[in-house]
Input
Amino acid sequence: MSQHIRIPVCIIGAGPGGAATALFLAKVGIESIIVDKASFPRDKICGDALSGKVVEVLNRYDPKLVEGLDSGKAFLPSWGVVFVAPNQESLSVPFRKDYASRNGKETAPGFIARRMDFDYFMVEEVKKRKEVKLLENTAITGFEKTPEGYRLRAAGSDLIIDTQLVIACDGAHSRFAKEEGGIQVEKDHYCAGLRVYYENVKGMHEGNFIELHFLKELLPGYFWIFPLPNGGANVGLGMRSDYVSKHKINLKEQLTTILEEYPAFRERFKDARQVDEIRGYGLPLGSKKRPISGDHFMLVGDAASLIDPFTGEGIGNAVMSGMLAAQQAAVCLQQNDFTATTMQAYDTAVYRRLWPELRLSYRMQQLVNYPWLFNFVVRKANRNKVLRETISVMFEDIDLRDRLRKPSFYFKLLFSN
Ligand SMILES: Cc1cc2nc3c(=O)[nH]c(=O)nc-3n(C[C@H](O)[C@H](O)[C@H](O)COP(=O)(O)OP(=O)(O)OC[C@H]3O[C@@H](n4cnc5c(N)ncnc54)[C@H](O)[C@@H]3O)c2cc1C
Output
């Protein structure tokens, strides 16, 4: 017998973007169904780093959720980042200026958690809400426009969902974004990434700093080592897809070569154990503004191509856009207006919040194409406490970060001590 569901809002995908959307809708009493092709807990290829923006959005939903992160064994608090310049000189930058005087009671600025655990943590929260119906193991593959909105169909089943509003949170390979939103892969605004899990990698930072290694063979991409709970490490690399194609780079071979040929990595990985295979996935970058809504739909997270083009961070932007989509959905339902013109307010809200940093990160991505400039800034910062502190504060202050894209910043550096 066919299953026919009628519901005001249908969310496709229960990753961080979809889960956040469902939670913020539920918070204002809006009923939704959230459908995922997977069953949770499930893995997702990722660097597993949860930035301050994730913490900010979860706090706005419910500060108790952040307490859950802070006390959960699956979540490792992270206090900063180590940048390694192409000439191998490294610069450690805490996310907060007062890092050295922390007393152990503050919530860390960021966390690292396997996506298997973080996404499950979010889905478990969704399950607590009576306003949300979660359907797992259900892939939405058919979208049909109706006078009221959309009729959705699932692969291999008789399920039919009639809804006024589709919120597509189905990730980097979103079928909905491609077929209904008209979003295409553009290789110069797309990145290829690989991840592999290790245990027992030596030389991790005592504050669980994440490590970004800007190796000359990967520019403007980078190689990373992120510490994980229980002595694990997330190791991977990312490179813009147009470079991968142009230089015919085999990223898996590149990863293996890096670990074997750089003496520092050889030493650190000498007793390490690889615990899964090297796997890849796409990163749709937010280095270009695109229409992310239309008649009766909105796109969220990777489906809307919102990944930071410099850092590769996408979870924060997924939960942030999910929160904004929920706010827009509330307006649409209240006014019973789901037209593209009304939905446009969602695009405006997302880009008002995210475009300043996405644009800046795009400029930064272009700057790291100049290895000598990167080497120079790292060398200067290692010798200049004020500059180090300035870079630290830049993580919290976007206006200050904006200085990095101005030639005057580097000019002043030339003449500073
Ligand atoms: C190698 C790599 C490293 C990265 N490192 C980081 C990092 O360290 N920090 C960070 O913040 N970001 C990182 N990112 C980006 C981050 O992984 C994404 O931005 C984030 O997962 C986006 O969340 P989302 O909810 O939009 O999509 P996803 O997390 O991809 O979730 C989409 C969900 O939709 C479901 N789905 C897909 N199609 C269908 C369908 N047809 N029907 C039903 N369900 C469907 C999927 O099963 C999935 O659960 C990395 C990405 C890669 C590839």
Remarks:
- The CA atoms of residues 8 and 163 lie 5 Å apart.
- The two ends are 76 Å apart (CA to CA).
- The chain has 14 helices and 19 strands.
